[in-house]
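Hi support team,

I submitted a single chain yesterday and got back a structure, but I'm not sure I'm reading the token output correctly. Could someone confirm the output below corresponds to the sequence I sent? I've pasted both exactly as they appear in my results page.

Thanks,
R.
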Amino acid sequence: MQNGEKKNNTEFVKYMEIRKKQMETSSELGADSLLEKFDDTGSGKARHVPFIDFKKIFNNDYSLKNATVGVFTGFINGLFGAGGGILLVPILNNLFKTEEHKSHATALGIILFLTITSSVFYVYAGTYDIGITWKVAIGSVVGGYLGAKLLNKVTGRFLRIAFGIVMILAAVRMVF
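Hi R., thanks for writing in. Yes, this is the structure output for that exact sequence:
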């Protein structure tokens, strides 16, 4: 065994010990916790990756409030082809008392399911334009990446104001 391999193996053992301790206490950890991940590229640097404790998430009771919000935002998204996020962000902020940044990020995750479900029905109904979808999707991937990077760099107050302005502009544009 060469010296570099020994170093990597030692680091891996340390990583596994840390990981074992963190998994033992995972009942106290939520989606915000971070675990140290072994960097197998040989650089010797540890990386931090998000850790989601699925046991904790799915052991929580599914309440009538959750179901009502899901049905309501799904209905609006299915009917109008959009709008789930515009509703979800304020709902997550006010009803679920979620922090501003998490509200925006969580809304995107929820919208994924809304969009897939609604899109399936739109495709079968023949009201879906795949050509436009691909053309716009290319730009939306770049825009989504840039927006997600910016999200963590702005304040919650800025997010509330900017999101409110976008909602007002969209409402004015729809009416006129």
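A quick pointer for reading it: The radius of gyration is 21 Å. Let us know if anything else looks off.

Best,
Support desk
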